[in-house]
């Protein structure tokens, strides 16, 4: 009986190793090299308050504002106005605003959330760049918490630092409201993030993140993933470049209308996490310590 169990164990290990090698080969072959951000002609401009086209700025230009806010939006007619009212009410004290404060970049095709955020970041003018979700789940005044967290990281190496909003402190409450299946998926995803990609950050997926301009240009210029798991690769890149990261608890409320389909979205993100790790491990994707910025 013992020899049979030993043979089965050896066979299982061999099959697992063969599967891992096969997946690594597939990850390597299917990896797409990171290309410079391509803009369609329509994506190079925005319309100002007078209805005239103006060229969008570049993140490689010098900053002309203190803060830029990037809000990716896809079919958000119901949720976006509420979020914008809160954000602009906080930032502008309900004053009039125009294209100098709000600019809409229309994408010719759906690039995914990560692709949309990347496009917005590369068109930003601020010394600091805030990523915020269109649903307004995080209370906008919590940007002050992120700013404090960012300042607490000083001195910033090469002016680079990141503050991540976090919902980890709400985990016990969310578990009580979730089904056992969704809780299992959540824990499985957190384990994969920790095991494969990012250590020390409990909540990588909160869409409320504040980056210095230098940290944004360094990380987003190396980003490959354009779907929901782009946050994980972003933080993986940041940790590779030893960019200091603060995780800051924020107020968060679940808002109806999420486009995430619990099982299939988590499955897709799990596959992305595995491929992120394998593609960097096999050299299909590379990060250079000294990177020339175009």
Automatic annotation (TrEMBL):
<dbReference type="GO" id="GO:0006487">
    <property type="term" value="P:protein N-linked glycosylation"/>
</dbReference>
<protein>
    <recommendedName>
        <fullName>Dolichyl-phosphate beta-glucosyltransferase</fullName>
        <ecNumber>2.4.1.117</ecNumber>
    </recommendedName>
</protein>
<keyword id="KW-0812">Transmembrane</keyword>
<keyword id="KW-0735">Signal-anchor</keyword>
<keyword id="KW-0328">Glycosyltransferase</keyword>
<dbReference type="InterPro" id="IPR001173">
    <property type="entry name" value="Glyco_trans_2-like"/>
</dbReference>
<keyword id="KW-1133">Transmembrane helix</keyword>
<dbReference type="GO" id="GO:0004581">
    <property type="term" value="F:dolichyl-phosphate beta-glucosyltransferase activity"/>
</dbReference>
<feature type="transmembrane region" description="Helical">
    <location>
        <begin position="6"/>
        <end position="29"/>
    </location>
</feature>
<comment type="similarity">
    <text>Belongs to the glycosyltransferase 2 family.</text>
</comment>
<dbReference type="InterPro" id="IPR035518">
    <property type="entry name" value="DPG_synthase"/>
</dbReference>
<dbReference type="InterPro" id="IPR029044">
    <property type="entry name" value="Nucleotide-diphossugar_trans"/>
</dbReference>
<keyword id="KW-0256">Endoplasmic reticulum</keyword>
<comment type="pathway">
    <text>Protein modification; protein glycosylation.</text>
</comment>
<dbReference type="Pfam" id="PF00535">
    <property type="entry name" value="Glycos_transf_2"/>
</dbReference>
<keyword id="KW-0472">Membrane</keyword>
<feature type="domain" description="Glycosyltransferase 2-like">
    <location>
        <begin position="87"/>
        <end position="217"/>
    </location>
</feature>
<keyword id="KW-0808">Transferase</keyword>
<dbReference type="GO" id="GO:0005789">
    <property type="term" value="C:endoplasmic reticulum membrane"/>
</dbReference>
């Amino acid at each position: 009986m013992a020899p049979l169990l030993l043979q089965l164990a050896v066979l299982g290990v061999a099959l697992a190793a063969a599967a891992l090698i096969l997946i690594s080969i597939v990850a390597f072959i299917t990896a797409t090299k990171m290309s410079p951000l391509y803009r369609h002609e329509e994506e190079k401009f925005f319309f100002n308050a007078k209805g005239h086209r103006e060229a969008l700025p570049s993140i490689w230009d010098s900053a002309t504002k203190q803060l830029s806010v990037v809000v990716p939006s896809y079919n958000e007619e119901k949720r976006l106005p509420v979020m914008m009212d809160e954000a602009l009410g906080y930032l502008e004290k309900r004053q009039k605003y125009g294209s100098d404060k709000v600019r809409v970049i229309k994408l010719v095709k759906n690039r995914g959330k990560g692709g949309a955020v990347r496009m917005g970041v590369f068109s930003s003018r601020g010394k600091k760049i805030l990523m915020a979700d269109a649903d307004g789940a995080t209370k906008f005044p919590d940007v002050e918490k992120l700013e404090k967290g960012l300042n607490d990281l000083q001195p910033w190496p090469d002016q680079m630092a990141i503050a991540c909003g976090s919902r980890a402190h709400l985990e016990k409450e969310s578990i009580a409201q979730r089904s056992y299946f969704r809780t299992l998926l959540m824990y499985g995803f957190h384990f994969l993030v920790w095991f494969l990609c990012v250590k020390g950050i409990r909540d990588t997926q909160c869409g409320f993140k504040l980056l210095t301009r230098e940290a944004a240009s360094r990380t987003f210029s190396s980003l490959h993933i354009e779907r929901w798991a782009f946050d994980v690769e972003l933080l993986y890149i940041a940790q590779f470049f030893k960019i200091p990261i603060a995780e800051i608890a924020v107020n968060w409320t679940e808002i109806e209308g999420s486009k995430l389909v619990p099982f299939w979205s988590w499955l897709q993100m799990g596959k992305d996490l595995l491929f992120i790790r394998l593609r960097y491990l096999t050299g299909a994707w590379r990060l250079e310590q000294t990177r020339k910025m175009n």
